[in-house]
From TrEMBL:
A Gene Ontology BP annotation from the UniProt entry: DNA integration
GO cellular component: condensed chromosome; nucleus; site of double-strand break
Sample GO molecular function, one term: double-stranded DNA binding
Matching InterPro entries: RNaseH_sf, Transposase-MT_Hybrid, Transposase_1
Coiled-coil segments on the chain, per record: none
Pfam families: Transposase_1
Protein name, as recorded: Transposase
Length: 164
């Protein structure tokens, strides 16, 4: 996250969004209906540092060098107030695309229907995610409509308003 100075209009949108969410929570219990996700790229740094006792003047054992390219994995975690719904590890993924995000949405909804059937059957889960490109892509918007997910407003440059 890069700090960003909000202009007056962005601050106003932020306040309006927060007030709207508070008013909605006053009228209906929405906290138990919110589902959110977060993506994180994890870098494996498995350097093996060998340590051994040596006699004075003796040479240490030679160790082969490791690969220069570090391994990365992208982890996505979906959760609600009841706990973790779904997590996955996406190897060699530099960024989440709309295709990957839509697949994750499908998997999450299948698991949510199994873990919290009342939430899926009685009412529509509310999705809280930021406005990253894969989340705002037309393909994702169509998938959200297909799954019947309502998306809560999330003002730009407001990572503190997301539960992650």
């Amino acid at each position: 996250w890069v700090p960003h100075e909000l202009n007056d209009c962005q601050r106003e949108v932020r306040v309006e969004t927060c007030i709207a969410l508070l008013n909605r929570h006053t009228n209906e219990e929405i906290l138990n209906c919110i589902v959110t996700c977060n993506e994180k790229c994890i870098l494996f740094d498995n350097r093996k540092r060998s340590a051994s006792w040596l006699y004075p003047g003796s040479a240490p054992k030679q160790c082969p060098k490791r690969k220069l390219t570090p391994r990365k994995v992208m982890v996505t975690v979906w959760w609600s107030s009841a706990g973790v719904i779904h997590h996955s590890f996406l190897p060699n993924v530099v960024s989440i695309t709309a295709d990957v995000y839509c697949e994750e949405l499908n998997t999450m909804m299948e698991k949510l229907a199994h873990l919290q059937p009342a939430l899926v059957n009685r009412s529509s889960p509310l999705l809280l995610h930021d406005n990253a490109r894969p989340h705002a892509a037309q393909q994702t918007v169509s998938k959200l409509q297909e799954l019947g997910l309502e998306v809560l407003r999330h003002p730009p440059y407001s990572p503190d308003l997301a539960p992650g």
